[in-house]
Amino acid sequence: MSLLFQTPRALVRRAQRLVQPSTPSPLAGRTVLITGASSGIGEATAYAVARLGGRIILIARREDELARVAGAVASLGAEVATFAVDLTDGNAVDATLAEITAQHGTVDYLVNNAGRSIRRSLDLSYDRMHDFERTMAINYFGPVRLILGVLPGMRAQRFGHVVNVVTWGVQMKAPKFAAYIASKTALDTFSRIAGRETFGDNVTFTNLRLPLVRTGMITATEAYRNAPAMTVEAAAAKIVRALEDRPITSSVPVAVVGEIANFALPRLSDAVAWLGSSRVPDSRAARASAATEPASAR
Ligand SMILES: NC(=O)c1ccc[n+]([C@@H]2O[C@H](COP(=O)([O-])OP(=O)(O)OC[C@H]3O[C@@H](n4cnc5c(N)ncnc54)[C@H](OP(=O)(O)O)[C@@H]3O)[C@@H](O)[C@H]2O)c1
Predict the structure, then answer these.
(1) Is 180 a catalytic residue?
(2) What residue intervals traverse the membrane (predicted)?
(3) Nearest CA to ligand 1 atom 20
(4) What is the pLDDT of residues 42-69, one digit of tens each?
(5) pLDDT, tens only, 136-163
(6) Looking at 109, 126, 180, 224, which residue is catalytic?
(7) Domain 2-297 has what CATH class?
(8) What are the boundaries of each domain within the chain?
(9) 284: DSSP letter
(10) What's the CA gap between 174 and 272, in Å, rounded?
(11) Whose CA is nearest to atom 41 of ligand 1?
């Protein structure tokens, strides 16, 4: 039942660490598995967790980039291991999880950060069912497979925490993001339910609903070039906070306002979203790949 007061207790411990900086983070000595660690938010999170004394396992597909990040993590004095795997390949993920358990034991913290975003209006998507399948594969089925893989160990040791890097779109429901936001919403909902089943085992989940973050992921959308966006370091700090404090959700205020508006004034919200979205057309990249991508690549 002490889990009921987890977040207030974590806030007290945070205050203690401020007064006494030598007090270790709850991440110290714990095994933290971070996916999508070869760039962007995942890379910054690896450095932030390394500074707090976590033992880090990094996953992504690009082996050379993983090696680069692992080198930088090791230079911060942290233990680090890398596994190059495509998280949409179920058999490869199962094999990797078996290897991780054999070499590193139970994963204490899992950060489901690897992901793919697609911003394309439905108008350009009528023959692009693969957009919806691809986003589900990496943003939903991949994380679910990892969660199912680490849960038995977490439940047996009666401790574990999962942070899902989702998006404020889960609350805002932004037009042109149907494929992306639906896949992140699926993970958000799965984890909310999983957390209810694992409550008695002290295994918890945070859905971290991030706003725009300045990474490679948003460069294809011209409209975002000058839009306000969080730095990767600020996003990583939010992930670390979610790992340490274990809240159920973490959101930014404007997304909470959007969520309330969607609930209280749904048609007005539709009108505002439609108007706003019609002023920001599909990116050149979204239009070009809709027009030219060969069927074999779909
Ligand atoms: N940037 C934003 O504005 C924003 C906002 C809200 C939420 N997010 C979320 O934040 C997370 C990180 O994104 P980012 O902005 O940091 O972009 P990023 O730099 O493109 O990072 C994406 C990461 O996911 C990995 N990845 C992609 N597909 C994979 C696959 N099939 N198997 C294994 N790894 C895969 C990539 O590594 P490899 O290519 O090496 O595999 C990369 O490390 C994503 O889940 C994204 O949806 C981003």
Answers:
(1) yes
(2) none
(3) 217
(4) 999 999 999 999 999 999 999 999 999 9
(5) 999 999 999 999 999 999 999 999 999 9
(6) 180
(7) alpha beta
(8) 2-297
(9) H
(10) 10
(11) 61
